[in-house]
């Protein structure tokens, strides 16, 4: 179980989502900061809007490593959080105490998901292809069926998922996916095709989805929001490594990012060698 203390995650570097194909545009906040204060001669005091309601998000698969990072980032941003996890895993979320609401049950149980996503502004689903009973596909079906129509739906998966068949995979990557695929099916541990089918189901839907495709993952302090590209094989992704906490950070950022609507961004660490090289090239171009 990962040890996610608040001190580990509050120091992360916030950033905007950068698409490798364009020069990263500054966020509104960055632009405002760069412009500095403007003396209008009028004193404006911030009056808290008491009618403002907290946004509510549901995290399906909350007790896993990615799920716990998602919870922490969501709490840091002031979201109200509902987490779904298997009954035996609820103990892994005990350290969040009363800061989150937990609903226990299988991720692919329609009744569990209906209850969990009610009234949510966003649903973040950790897609896992465990077992041989189409766990990931059934989870997607439940989320799509029960999430409010306006909710942002963010799903996690790996680079092996391709939306349009235009991804170009290194030989080693293809070999690993093949071996894991065969071993998973033989041992009945999991079925990678289940995740493929689940994502195809998402791609075909008219919901407000984003499928975030993670590279290989490592633990460690946040480097900030990862950079992304539309296709595996693009030079910026070559390092194939992202901090797990930043995978979660990207999913949280995607909630409010309209440019990622119905996109399947493949991500890589913002400070990875390929990301740094690519941006140097862009800046010099
Ligand atoms: N690991 C990687 O290197 C990597 C790379 C790219 C993308 N990803 C993506 O990242 C996401 C999750 O990664 P992660 O590292 O956070 O994985 P993780 O910690 O292993 O958690 C995955 C989830 O699987 C659940 N789970 C475990 N055993 C299960 C079982 N037998 N039946 C049903 N559910 C079970 C866990 O729930 P419990 O807490 O209840 O066990 C947890 O919610 C996936 O979408 C994956 O495709 C991972």
TrEMBL record:
Gene3D superfamilies xrefs: NAD(P)-binding Rossmann-like Domain
Gene Ontology MF terms in the entry: biliverdin reductase [NAD(P)H] activity; riboflavin reductase (NADPH) activity
Record's protein name: Rrf2-linked NADH-flavin reductase
Highest rank taxon of the organism: Bacteria
SUPFAM superfamilies: NAD(P)-binding Rossmann-fold domains
InterPro entries: NAD(P)-bd_dom (IPR016040), NAD(P)-bd_dom_sf (IPR036291), Polyketide_Oxido-like (IPR051606)
Source species of the chain: Deinococcus marmoris
Domain NAD(P)-binding, first and last residues per copy: 61-257
Coiled-coil regions listed in the entry: none
PANTHER family: FLAVIN REDUCTASE (NADPH)
Residue intervals passing through the bilayer: none
Pfam families, alphabetized: NAD_binding_10
Residue segments, region Disordered: 1-27
């Amino acid at each position: 179980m990962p040890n996610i203390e608040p001190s580990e995650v509050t120091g992360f570097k916030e950033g905007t989502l950068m698409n490798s194909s364009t020069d990263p545009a500054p966020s509104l906040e960055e632009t405002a900061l760069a412009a500095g204060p403007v003396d209008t001669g009028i004193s404006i005091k911030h009056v808290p809007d008491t009618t403002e309601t907290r946004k509510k998000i549901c995290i399906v698969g909350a007790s896993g490593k990615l799920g716990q990072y998602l919870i922490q980032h969501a709490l840091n941003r002031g979201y109200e959080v509902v987490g779904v996890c298997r009954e035996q895993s609820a103990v892994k979320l005990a350290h969040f105490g009363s800061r989150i609401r937990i609903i226990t049950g299988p991720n692919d149980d329609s009744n569990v998901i209906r209850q969990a996503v009610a009234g949510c502004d966003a649903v973040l689903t950790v897609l896992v292809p465990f077992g041989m009973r189409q766990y990931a596909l059934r989870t997607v079906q439940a989320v799509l069926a029960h999430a409010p129509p306006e909710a942002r739906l963010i799903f996690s998966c790996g680079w092996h998922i391709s939306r349009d068949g235009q991804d170009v995979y290194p030989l080693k990557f293809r070999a690993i996916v093949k071996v894991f695929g065969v071993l998973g099916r033989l041992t009945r541990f999991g079925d990678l095709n289940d995740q493929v089918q689940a994502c195809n189901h998402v791609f075909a839907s008219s919901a407000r989805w984003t499928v975030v495709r993670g590279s290989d993952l490592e633990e460690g302090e946040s480097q900030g929001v990862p950079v992304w590209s539309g296709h595996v094989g693009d030079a910026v992704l070559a390092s194939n490594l992202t901090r797990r906490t930043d995978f979660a950070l990207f999913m949280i950022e995607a909630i409010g990012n309209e440019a990622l609507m119905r996109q399947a961004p493949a991500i890589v660490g913002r400070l990875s060698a390929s990301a740094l090289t690519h941006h140097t090239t862009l800046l010099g171009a």
